[in-house]
Amino acid sequence: MNYHKYIDIDVINGRGTRCTLFVAGCEHKCPGCYNKSTWRAHSGHPFTEQIVEQIIHDLKDTRIKRRGLSLSGGDPLFPSNCPAIYSLCKAVKKACPDKDIWLWTGYMLEKLNQTQREILKHIDVLVDGPFKQELADAALEFRGSSNQRILEAPFG
Ligand code: SF4
């Protein structure tokens, strides 16, 4: 997996103060996408064990308390991202069980395959669905268009 950006203190993507990772790779090609540069899976930088350690270190920081980790992109559930995202979520939940994980995907919950569903077992909030320009609404919290849903675990 590659990633584009890691923000160690973020108050925009999800509730509370968070760490946010934007990964590379997305096949949805939504018209009006705000992050086209992330579509190619090989764009950005290699996601290494060092970044995992940095994220866990930041989540454990007691000076600036983070509520959790946000995973966006690109699409964290892009098929070739799934192994690294699965390992990351498991590692974060093991090291920081009190932190929540939010994940944004262009797939609909109902269309996720078994590999993608395994990741859901280790996250708390899923924001699902493609961005639809005709349903775009800047007043929406944590999503770009009204078809997208903010779903909380358990996901069923
Ligand atoms: S799912 Fe997100 S990153 Fe992918 S094309 Fe749609 S808006 Fe862009």
Count of domains: 1
SSE order, one letter for each helix or strand: EEEHEHEHEE
> Quick one: CATH superfamily?
Aldolase class I
Helix share bin: 10-25%
By DSSP (H or I, 4+ residues per run), the number of helices equals: 3
Q: Kindly report the spatial arrangement of strands forming the biggest sheet.
A: 3-1-2-4-5-6-7
User: What small-molecule ligands were found?
Assistant: iron/sulfur cluster
Mean pLDDT, to the nearest integer, reads 98
Shape-level CATH architecture: Alpha-Beta Barrel
Which regions have little confidence, pLDDT < 50, spanning 5+ residues? none
CATH topology: TIM Barrel
The geometry reads as globular
Distance N terminus to C terminus? Answer: 27 Å
Largest sheet: 7 strands, mixed
Structural class: alpha/beta
The CATH C-level name is Alpha Beta
**Count of DSSP strands:** 7
The portion of residues forming beta strands comes to 15-25%
Cα-based radius of gyration, to the nearest Å: 14 Å
Describe the structure.
The protein has 156 residues and is of the alpha/beta class. The chain has one domain (2-152): Aldolase class I (TIM Barrel). Helices cover 21% and strands 22% of the residues. The protein has helices at residues 49-59, 82-95, 114-120; strands at 2-10, 18-23, 45-46, 68-72, 100-104, 125-128, 149-152. The chain has a 7-stranded mixed sheet with strand order 3-1-2-4-5-6-7, covered by helices on one side. Helix 3 links the parallel strand 5 and strand 6 (125-128). The longest helix has 14 residues, at 82-95. Iron/sulfur cluster (SF4) binds at residues 26, 28-30, 33, 35, 38, 73-75, 106, 130-131.
